[in-house]
Design a protein that fits this description.
alpha/beta; globular
Length: 284
């Protein structure tokens, strides 16, 4: 006997969806869940695969062609657009923007913008829904995550503006995952400044199900965190930014005193500014 779907997910059955970053951790899992729920899904990703169109979302023409092909494969009807494509380079926010900073803005912000714009005619026809994945780090300042934080804060502003101008005809939800161990953190690990164990961890499933529930809700929720702790954190970060900055500064000081990031070249300036042991001269 087949178990009936929860009521809040039944509306998804038979819908048509596009998912960006569909070959990645979040995207691949979301595609699988949506298909299980009876959704027709086409993915977009730099890495093409069965059901996933190869598309670099930093390229205007590839986005136009990729979205047009996806909508065509879906029979010209689009109900749902889910954004996952993103990068998270490690940078020193006090240095001039480098190629990694430009990539974060191009992928995380402008890529989201490009794909949404290309899909907008189809979404307006169906009065569809857009789910934009931001991050709790869009409101929490942690060392070396500046490019990611700035781009994701910009993504939340984009979602808010989209809701203000198009919310009468489409639903817009912003989802705020916490720290999830996925390949997006490979860059910071390689640089020696990974956040593993430094902030509360969430699971891939937390994010995927938050997105799916938002997509299936009768009315598009405005802002959604992935967990109860994430919801509390989002409230703190957004409504008490001064307190958040004080807590983050205190935590960073403790980490540096314990030698965190001591072997990372990018962190030497931060250690020096905090006068932490990692940069203190040794006695002769």
């Amino acid at each position: 006997m087949t178990t009936p779907l929860p009521r809040h997910l039944r509306r998804l059955t038979g819908q048509n969806a596009i998912v960006t970053g569909a070959s990645g951790a979040f995207g691949g899992s979301t595609v699988a869940v949506l298909r299980h729920l009876g959704v027709n899904v086409i993915g977009l990703d730099r890495k093409p695969a069965p059901g996933v169109i190869g598309c670099d979302i930093t390229d205007d023409e590839q986005v136009r062609q990729g979205v047009a092909e996806a909508v065509e494969r879906l029979g010209g009807h689009l109900d749902l657009l889910v954004h996952y494509a993103g990068v998270g380079p490690a940078v020193d926010i006090g240095r001039a923007p480098d190629v990694h900073v430009h990539q974060a803005l191009e992928v995380n912000l402008l890529g989201t913008w490009r794909v949404t714009a290309a899909a907008m005619p189809a979404l307006l026809r169906s009065r569809g829904r857009v789910v934009i994945t931001a991050s709790l780090l869009s409101h929490l300042q942690l060392p070396f995550a500046g490019a990611y934080t700035v781009s994701k804060r910009a993504v939340t502003a984009y979602a808010d503006c989209l809701r203000a101008e198009y919310g009468s005809h489409i639903g817009v939800t912003t989802v705020y995952p916490g720290y999830v161990d996925t390949p997006i953190h490979d860059s910071s690990r390689a640089t020696g400044v990974a956040l593993d164990g430094l902030v509360p961890a969430e699971t891939e499933r937390d994010t995927v199900m938050a997105v799916v529930r938002a997509a299936g809700a009768g009315r598009a929720p405005r802002d959604v965190a992935s967990t109860a702790l994430g919801t509390a954190g989002l409230h703190l970060f957004r409504h008490f930014p001064g307190t958040t900055e004080q807590i983050a500064s205190f935590r960073i000081g403790l980490l540096l005193a314990d030698g965190a990031f001591a072997d990372a070249e990018i962190a030497q300036g931060l250690h020096a500014r905090h006068g932490s042991p990692a940069t203190q001269p040794t006695a002769s």
